[in-house]
Amino acid sequence: MKRILSNLTFQVLFAILLGVVVGIYFKGFAPTAQVISKTFISLITMLIAPIIFFTIVLGIAGMSDMKKVGRVGGKALLYFEIVTTLALVIGVTVANLVKPGEGFINTHAPVDAAKLADYQKAASQMKIMDFLAHIVPGNIFESFAKGEILQILFFAILFGFGLSRLGASGQSVIATFEKLSRVFFNIMKIVMRVAPLGAFGGMAYTISTYGIKALQPLGLLMASVYITMALFIFVVLNLIAYFFKFSLWQYLKHIKEEILIVLGTSSSESALPGMMEKLEKFGCSKSVVGLVIPAGYSFNLDGTTIYLSMSVIFLAQVFNRHLSIEEQLTIIGILMITSKGAAGVTGSGFIVLTSTLAATKIIPVEGVAILLGVDRFMSEARAITNVIGNGVATIVVAKSEGEFRAPAP
């Protein structure tokens, strides 16, 4: 019994259930719960930048073949594009079959005009070239301070290349970085002991603020999104795992704590440091993990793309707007671009959705307001699918490069 109580998975799961109960019966606890959740996410966020930096630098500096670095990055980006496009197609197909928006009365959904205006403004400012230019940091210290993952990734790759060119004289720097990397991972282990508190706060805040009843008007859409993401994980990703000869179930079991933390906090970033460490233990090389995982957090958002594609079709059905095959293909094409452009932006799901509707001019942009009330309840599914998908991508790239060593049973 003592062993079960001290198990992190059990603690997080119990904390989530307790958070649901507290959220239902103690509405006034919401502000405190939000502080608890935000504090835990901040604890994780403060470790993300240094862990990514040291992991990437050490991985690249340890590679004797620099062409291999480019090859790994190229394979990762190709995989991301193929799988996220597949996710978009699946989302559109399911939404067309289930038709969750038919007969929906949009007065059921409360409209938050201020939030809607914020998303419309952010969407109007989205430009793909600006996003690409933003990858190059003007001030790397500012990038670390703001937690700009892509900018840190870019700088770390250059730093790793530069360090590798020092040869033997750079070994002292590498040794120091390895020690610093271990320090940050040790800090992460300490932080993870309070993960149950973070999961409790996140779930209590969500339930007490939005309430279980908020699910009812959009229940069919929510059920469709959850079922589609489950099918994506257990069918599509399972087939990928089968093709590359590893067990999806063993992988999911290996990262169960990270999945539960994401469930409780609704934040995929809360699992990033843990995922990097777990994937190394699962058998992926440090260099592949360091390159693929951070890039995946910006370019491989499987859950987000499923949600976006289904939301567009849902809104079309709400407004009785029949979309032709050509119009749906156009929307998929636009989402393939805009979903990358909002990478790492808070509220990116709504920003991408708003910008897509504005670009197509097929569905009223104001329709986004219908989804505001229940978005929080779907964010867990999006985040979990994103995290699982990024791990699968890392294993696939590692295996294709011969950089995977199965852990001893």
TrEMBL record:
UniProt key word Protease: no
A biological-process GO annotation: L-aspartate transmembrane transport
UniProt-listed InterPro entries: Na-dicarboxylate_symporter, Na-dicarboxylate_symporter_CS, Na:dicarbo_symporter_sf
Membrane spanning stretches: 39-64, 76-98, 149-169, 190-212, 218-244
Classification via NCBIfam families: PRK01663.1
GO molecular function: fumarate transmembrane transporter activity; malate:proton symporter activity; succinate transmembrane transporter activity
Keywords: Cell membrane, Membrane, Symport, Transmembrane, Transmembrane helix, Transport
SUPFAM superfamilies given in the database record: Proton glutamate symport protein
UniProt topology in membrane: Multi-pass membrane protein
Primary residence: membrane
Keyword Membrane part of the UniProt annotation: yes
Superkingdom of this protein's organism: Bacteria
Organism of this sequence: Mucilaginibacter psychrotolerans
Gene3D superfamilies: Sodium:dicarboxylate symporter
Protein known as: C4-dicarboxylate transporter DctA
Lineage of origin: Bacteria, Pseudomonadati, Bacteroidota, Sphingobacteriia, Sphingobacteriales
GO cellular component, one term: plasma membrane
Localization, UniProt: Cell membrane
Pfam family, one: SDF
